[in-house]
């Protein structure tokens, strides 16, 4: 609290002294980029509080239900949330986006068009995931089944998604289709739209058939290069949960009891991956532990990943998913608030000292009428709750940090400009000689 008060006073002082300078005066094209361990937006460090809402496209595909997307974005912005992560996939099954390899449901695509357009109106950046590791909304299982049924491929594992050239071809086509999509609402191709902050190769990629990690490493390398060959405007991340692998055996002791063939360090060192992600579900991963042990796991988990992002990867990091389910035994709102406060404090502490942690996205945001989508982790900001207050407070703290850094940068630019004017006024540099 003491640190927060100091920062708040500093923000007031900076605002009073430099109010005449626009914090966005550095210019820019509105795309979020990276510089070292920081995200940058229009020349200034970018910190963001955000949320997951996988249901956005699915709901917006029905024009009569689009108000729910608008309501969710309105409630999010009223709590200071500026980044949303959602699905840009739905493969086969009920109401698909892609109902067969290379064939798309235009009504569903218009739903995604609307989501992007509406996010733009509300000043929300989007992280769009391109395929699922799991069966929900199709995922890698559907791709493998398509290759079996449509192309006669003999495939024995869903993990052949990462290895089989036919399956990879299906995914490559999907990537090209989405990135080159012309938005029917905005008139902007997705690959040219600054509303999109980043692409995600896959939601939580796992390859249990190859715990060495080589299969996932090769797949991320190949597909990251593909995305960048089409779209250099946007950032790219792999969708990782953060499990350590063989490149850092001393870190694997931090993992929950899972061996899923990913490697946080090696996967994120791939040059075309712009930033790292980590997910946090101590209630799932440490089910047999008590609440305090789960919070201790969470603290260690975040500490390690933030340090590795700064020193081993030298890239920014986002906590792309975290939450606590009301279905947990002994659940209370107080416990959920404890978890949120733990995650948020770690990010705030990192941001305050200029570290690599730049934000977190809780799982998941719902709005009125979306109760059937609640998997236990749903949060409705429209209903006054202590958790909604915790979320809003974090947004405000990160907002202050953004403004402080922006105004410091503007001060420096102003001083440089004043120095240049003084130099020009008193003779400047003429013919290689310094004039006074």
Automatic annotation (TrEMBL):
Lineage: Eukaryota, Viridiplantae, Streptophyta, Embryophyta, Tracheophyta
Record protein name field: Uncharacterized protein
Organism (species): Trifolium pratense
Domain of life: Eukaryota
């Amino acid at each position: 609290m003491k640190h927060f008060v100091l920062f708040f006073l500093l923000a007031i002082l900076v605002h009073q002294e430099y109010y005449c300078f626009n914090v966005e005066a550095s210019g820019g094209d509105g795309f979020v980029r990276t510089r070292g361990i920081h995200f940058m937006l229009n020349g200034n460090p970018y910190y963001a509080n955000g949320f997951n809402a996988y249901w956005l496209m699915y709901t917006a595909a029905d024009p009569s239900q689009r108000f729910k997307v608008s309501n969710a974005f309105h409630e999010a912005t009223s709590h200071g949330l500026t980044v949303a992560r959602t699905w840009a996939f739905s493969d086969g099954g009920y109401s698909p986006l892609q109902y067969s390899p290379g064939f798309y449901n235009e009504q569903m695509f218009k739903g995604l068009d609307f989501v992007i357009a509406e996010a733009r109106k509300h000043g929300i950046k989007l992280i769009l995931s391109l395929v699922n590791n799991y069966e929900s909304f199709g995922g890698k299982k559907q791709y493998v089944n398509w290759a079996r049924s449509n192309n006669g491929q003999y495939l024995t594992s869903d993990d052949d998604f990462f290895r089989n050239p036919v399956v990879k071809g299906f995914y490559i086509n999907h990537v090209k289709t989405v990135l080159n999509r012309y938005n029917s609402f905005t008139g902007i191709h997705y690959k040219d739209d600054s509303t999109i902050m980043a692409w995600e190769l896959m939601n939580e990629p796992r390859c249990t058939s190859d715990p060495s990690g080589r299969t996932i490493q090769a797949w991320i390398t190949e597909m990251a290069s593909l995305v960048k060959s089409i779209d250099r405007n946007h950032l790219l991340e792999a969708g990782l949960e953060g499990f350590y692998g063989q490149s850092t055996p001393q870190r694997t002791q931090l993992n929950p009891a899972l061996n899923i063939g990913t490697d946080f360090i090696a996967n994120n060192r791939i040059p075309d991956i712009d930033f790292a992600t980590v997910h946090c579900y101590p209630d799932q991963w440490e089910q047999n532990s008590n609440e305090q042990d789960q919070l201790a796991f969470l603290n260690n988990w975040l500490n390690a990943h933030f340090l590795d992002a700064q020193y081993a990867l030298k890239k920014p990091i986002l906590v792309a998913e975290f939450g606590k389910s009301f279905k947990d035994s002994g659940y209370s709102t107080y416990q959920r608030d404890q978890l949120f406060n733990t995650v948020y404090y770690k990010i705030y502490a990192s941001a305050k000292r200029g570290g690599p942690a730049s934000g977190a996205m809780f799982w998941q945001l719902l709005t009125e009428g979306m109760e059937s989508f609640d998997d236990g982790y749903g949060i409705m900001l429209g209903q006054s709750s202590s958790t909604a207050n915790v979320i809003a407070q974090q947004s405000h703290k990160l907002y202050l940090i953004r403004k402080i850094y922006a105004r410091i940068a503007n001060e420096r630019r102003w001083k440089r400009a004043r120095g240049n004017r003084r130099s020009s006024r008193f003779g400047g540099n003429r013919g290689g000689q310094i004039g006074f």
